Amino acid sequence: MLSTGFVIALLLIFGFVGAILVLDKFEYLEPYGLDVSGPFLMWKTEGGKNFINKLAEKKRFWTNYGSLGLIIVSISMIIIFFLVAWSAYLATSIPAEQAPETIEILALPGINPLIPLWFGILGLAVAIIVHEFSHGILARVADIDIKSLGLIFVVVPIGAFVEPNEDQMEDLESIKRGRIYAAGPTTNIILALVVVLIFSTLFMGAISAREEGVVISGIVENSPAAASDLREGEQILSIGHERIRNRDDLNSVNITPVENVEVETLRGDSEHSHSITSGLVVAGMVAGYPMERTDIETGDIITAIDDSTVKNYDDFSELLDSKEPYEEIKVTYHSKNETDYEEYNVTFELDERNGDAYMGVMVTYLGVTTWEVDMIPKLLSRPYADAENLQDYVQSSLEYIALPFLGLSPLPEEIAELYTIEGPLSVLPSNSFWIIANSLYWIFWLNLLVGLFNSLPAVPLDGGFIFKDGMKNLVKKIGLNDDKGEKVSSAIAYGLALAILFLLLWQLIGPRI
Hints:
The chain is α+β, with helices and mostly antiparallel strands. Helices cover 47% and strands 21% of the residues.
């Protein structure tokens, strides 16, 4: 089913396109420097040329900037190429039902479900504008004429264009041409770093949790939690009379299983109480391992192993650690009929994984998956606080940019209300604070995406032209003449571009074969 926002966006776009086509037909747009190209409205301006010419007067600064850009793009080119190759490799092991859809590959606000419409439009517009204007500045530094420039609209500004004189570009020496190509991705990456610094230090450094606790991120089907009115995004404060400050507290709840307990939660800024059946719930089973071959189902409550009571995850883990691979065990569990839970027993032989006894089951208390409420301020204001080596830094970076995949950017209103704003920014209304914070995050996210993607060594991307010029210089050094060198470098560049296109498409195709 299409979301309301998506339908509104489509209506706005169709209405906008219809209006500009009518206005263009009656020649109302041309006097204002406006032109229609397909569904896009293009505004061309001479004032923009003067602005670029003014900025380009600092030639020494921009020449050094372009040279730095070549280094940044070269490093980014290697990183993003290996990330694409690695993603294509991982695609071979992804089940077809978990494979990404085409709309999830396209970074288009309102189309890609991960990218919010208005924050996405803002972030993408900023990314394209600074990208194109950076090309224009470096082009003028190299005395390349700009044929046209301006903004591109679809209801709102979604980008910009700067069109340099292509003939002059071809005649330019490769190092100067490379600086022009590198300027766009470099500015995107540098802007992303500046914006994320503001976002992390000023904004995320200003928030703290109202209460300690864990936040519900998921609810297991057919579990006690699913039978209650608990919701994703609620913060668990206590279970029974036990205060839950973190996941360690949740993993060690000392309550007899299959009893009704009161769970106190914070939903937004209001407290709620829920009556739920206690116990450690089966959240899923691993294919090919012993538990899958039993009658136990997702949502059942494990209450004992070899007649030793299992009250919580710590009990379960300790009992399993005491067993040997291929040892026979008895698992007592409760399964719900129409009204009540009934007790059952099942006996089976454990399997082995990494030298330890393994039954192939995922369990969670009450049937909820959670994250600690201080994860957001810690992850976003101090992402590298616990990093000790390169792997930790990479892992922390990936977690930082993964918020959209976790449904946490933009932060849902009910989760945002779990935090208070402190310091100078507390003068802002909460809604304004989070609008600015989410805008900054998406400007960072989409600038980083545009910068890295355009660094790929694939023509017609900026990185592709830089790579092609590099190949041309390399083959020239090994003694090939200009004509043959052009053919060889072009063949390598376009061959690599096709290989990268295949790797990108493989992420869609591979899991489905």
